[in-house]
Design brief:
- The chain has 10 helices and 8 strands.
- The protein is of the alpha/beta class.
- It has one domain: TIM Barrel (Alpha-Beta Barrel), CATH 3.20.20.
- It has an 8-stranded parallel barrel, surrounded by 5 helices.
- The structure holds flavin-adenine dinucleotide (FAD).
- The site of flavin-adenine dinucleotide has 25 residues, from strand 3, strand 4, helix 4, helix 5 and strand 6.
- GO terms for molecular function: FAD binding; methylenetetrahydrofolate reductase (NADH) activity.
- It catalyses: (6S)-5-methyl-5,6,7,8-tetrahydrofolate + NAD(+) = (6R)-5,10-methylene-5,6,7,8-tetrahydrofolate + NADH + H(+).
């Protein structure tokens, strides 16, 4: 199994943001990433911006560009058109997700869960796309229980996913337990840990509450104690996340997927300490 680094971005919504993202990508190429991925607003809210960002990255070359694609509030015809668009531009990697129903949108669309999207992509495009799906070592916030969540993860893999990227977490044990549980029920695809650098406590706390990622109490308390001291937050965050990555790598993680928030400095600092900058 190859070790793969990857970086995730959100699609910029201004020309200035797009220019800055170009610089960020340029800097992150020092990691020799396997792919750069671009998020997709559930319900299609970023459809064109995701598409533009992905095509630009693909044209730049150097590493694969992988669009995220959510299926909530979508139709089969709509998804088919997007797949064709990407295929026509030589994209051969995709991150397939359900997404969350956007507020105000009432029509749930023709897909209920990500396993249906994966099956649809396979039915429409065969083996053209390398498909990544989401995994949740600390369990998805809507999961009724851990065993069912794992079973639902297996359904995505059985539908044709080649690998998974996890929600971010700061408890390495949750990841290793999750891998053990996957192995126990015969899930053999690589599960790459998603890594969220810590640079902004308020934002991190908001995200974590929404997506069900636990910030361990000792980390939360230390971050709270720094108040507005962003340098202290960054320095402590760098120590915590580097130590997490070291444990994951020592335990055999098949790669690292960085949630960059369209910034390069924190990711580069972590990878520099890990000896992963070329
Ligand atoms: P699913 O795998 O469908 O799971 C959702 C919930 O339904 C889980 O609780 C699961 O246990 C349950 N479930 C699954 N299958 C079934 C079934 N067949 N029957 C009954 N219950 C089932 N969101 C975006 O909007 N845009 C993005 O670009 C984006 N990128 C992401 C990238 C990564 C790596 C990750 C980890 C998350 C990303 N998300 C993104 C967030 C994601 O869309 C949400 O977490 C969403 O709530 C679930 O998506 P999923 O693909 O995991 O859904």
């Amino acid at each position: 199994m190859n070790f793969e680094l990857s970086c995730e971005f959100f699609p910029p919504n201004t020309d200035e943001g797009a220019e800055k993202l170009c610089e960020v990508r340029q800097a992150l190429r020092a990691l020799r990433p396997a792919f750069f991925s671009v998020t997709y607003g559930a319900g299609g809210s970023t459809r064109n911006r995701t598409f533009e960002a992905v095509i630009k990255m693909q044209e730049e070359g150097g590493c694969d560009a992988a669009p995220h694609l959510t299926c909530v509030a979508s139709t089969r015809d709509g998804v088919r058109a997007i797949l064709e668009l990407y295929r026509g531009h030589g994209i051969h990697r995709i991150v397939a997700l359900r997404g969350d129903m956007p507020s105000g949108m009432l029509d749930p669309g023709e897909f209920s869960h990500a396993n249906e999207l994966v099956a649809f992509i396979r039915a429409e495009t065969g083996s053209h796309f390398h498909i990544e799906v989401a995994a949740y070592p600390e369990y998805h916030p809507q999961a009724t229980n851990p065993a069912k969540d794992l079973e639902h993860f297996r359904r995505k893999v059985e539908a044709g996913a080649d690998g998974a990227i996890t929600q971010y977490f700061y408890n390495a044990d949750a990841y290793f337990r999750f891998l053990d549980d996957c192995a126990r029920i015969g899930i053999g695809v690589p599960v790459v840990p998603g890594i969220m650098p810590i640079t902004n406590f308020v934002q991190l706390a908001r995200f974590s509450d929404a997506c069900g990622a636990e910030i361990p109490r000792w980390v939360r308390r230390r971050l709270e104690s720094f108040g507005d001291d962003r340098d202290a937050i960054r320095a402590f965050g760098l120590d915590v996340v580097t130590a997490l990555c070291e444990r994951l790598l020592a335990g055999g993680a098949p790669g690292l997927h960085f949630y960059t928030m369209n910034q390069s400095a924190a990711v580069l600092a972590i990878c520099d300490r890990l000896g992963l900058v070329h």
